[in-house]
Design brief:
412 residues, alpha/beta, Rossmann fold, six-stranded parallel beta sheet, elongated
């Protein structure tokens, strides 16, 4: 099976591990990843990434000339893409830019123009209802009409696509898995000593941006309600709410319990997660208007959850977006924004070592079976095979119908 994946995501080598695993699941699999030749990450004008060709046998990264160097929706590719398609002749084309992207429309069109007969698939994280105006509405209609299957990062996104009339297969799974070698349970005596932690300290952890939608104010307010218990708070990240967090800590006389760590490379995040006795992701849905009728943001996945689960750290999450689906029965879930319920969950974790151990084991088993790079790659391959087999079955049924009824034209 020849698989072509198109996305700026894989400019970052760390993000390629799932696709490397996919390329080595079976001997007949080849994965070619098309990335933009030039890209400006986060729209930072002074930082331009020049991508490089890489050939690892069954796995290749191929830079292609591109238009728009900092906008996913407007990203399209130059004519050198045609040569790659002609030479590689993919069975699967997966574009990871969403249903409204020009790059996806471009690949659909080239697939048809070159008569490749590859399956068209796109990946999306989008999990909010939306309305489109012309001409974007026409673009999405074209893309969906020529889509054979969709991989959605969350269940809400899949539900929205069903509501928009898409009836073909949808697979719900994350874009990237977790590296079980990096995110593994390990003691961290040096880091513990560096931050003055002791074996009997109960460390509540948070990893992410210090912004309102991540619910970090709810977390620290919940901890102020259980000051009588022995805990410390490890905050890993940065953001606009840093001063507010420290202000609340000072007002409630818990500043000495708060450890704030900024600017940690992703390769070191696992070390800090291993300092934690529980990781909390208290994300909160935001709204565009005060009437709370139009959602502005809700959690799309919560990758830090599966990183903690892989490290055998029990997790607590709010019920925002995909979080309950990620945790399932392998952690505690509380109503988003509910300080009292989060305080109750934290108390349960602190007071019940057996509960912590059971949830740590359940989370680990869930991460290993569902969320490692290998597990995600296997799900992806199974989805591809399903699409190809469905086509074979439909073709056979059509041939049988022609033979049985005497029809001489195939249905469009």
């Amino acid at each position: 099976m020849k698989i072509l994946v198109v996305s700026h995501t894989y400019i970052v080598d760390l993000n390629c591990e799932k696709l490397r695993v996919l390329a080595n699941l079976e001997s007949d699999i080849q994965v070619t990843v098309v990335v933009p030749q030039r890209w400006i990450p986060g729209g930072v004008q002074n930082k331009i990434i020049e991508t490089q060709f890489r050939d690892e046998g069954n796995f290749r990264i191929v830079p292609v000339s591109n238009f728009s160097q900092n906008n996913q929706g407007l990203l399209t590719f130059g004519s050198d893409l045609i040569k790659i398609l002609r030479e590689f002749k993919p069975d699967i084309i997966q574009v990871e830019q969403g249903s409204k992207s020009l790059a996806y429309a471009e690949l659909i069109t080239l697939n048809k123009f070159l008569n490749l007969k590859a399956k068209n698939i796109f990946f999306t994280w989008w999990n909010l209802p939306y309305e489109l105006k012309f001409p974007i509405s026409l673009l999405e209609k074209y893309n969906l009409a020529h889509t054979d299957g969709i991989i959605c990062g969350n269940q809400d996104g899949a539900d929205i696509l069903r509501q928009r009339g898409f009836q073909k297969p949808i697979q719900v799974m994350p874009q990237l898995g977790v590296d079980e070698v990096v995110f593994a349970p390990r003691s961290q005596p040096e880091l513990m000593a560096q931050y003055g932690l002791h074996q009997d300290d109960f460390v509540v952890g948070f990893v992410g941006r210090f912004v309102p939608e991540k619910g970090i104010i709810t977390l620290i307010n919940a901890l102020t309600k259980i000051r009588d218990r022995h805990w410390k708070l490890l905050l890993l990240g940065r953001g606009e709410l840093k001063d507010k967090l420290l202000e609340i800590a000072v007002e409630n006389q818990i500043r000495d319990r708060v450890i704030l760590v900024e600017s940690v490379p992703h390769s070191e995040v696992a070390n800090y997660i291993n300092l934690m006795n529980v990781l909390v992701l208290p994300s909160e849905t935001t709204y565009k208007f005060k009437t709370m009728t139009s959602v502005g943001w809700k959690e799309q996945f919560g990758h830090v959850l599966i990183e903690a689960m892989a490290a055998k750290v029990p997790v607590i999450g709010s019920d925002s977006g995909e979080i309950p689906h990620v945790i399932h029965d392998a952690g505690l879930i509380f109503p988003e924004g509910n300080v009292d319920e989060l305080a109750r969950c934290l108390s349960c974790m602190i007071d019940d070592p057996e509960l912590r151990q059971n949830l740590a084991n359940l989370g680990y088993m869930r991460a290993m079976s569902k969320y490692t790079n290998t597990a995600v790659a296997k799900q992806q391959l199974q989805f591809y095979r399903q699409l190809i087999e469905d086509t074979i079955v439909r073709t056979k049924n059509t041939v049988d119908r022609i033979q049985n009824t005497g029809e001489i034209s195939l249905p469009i």
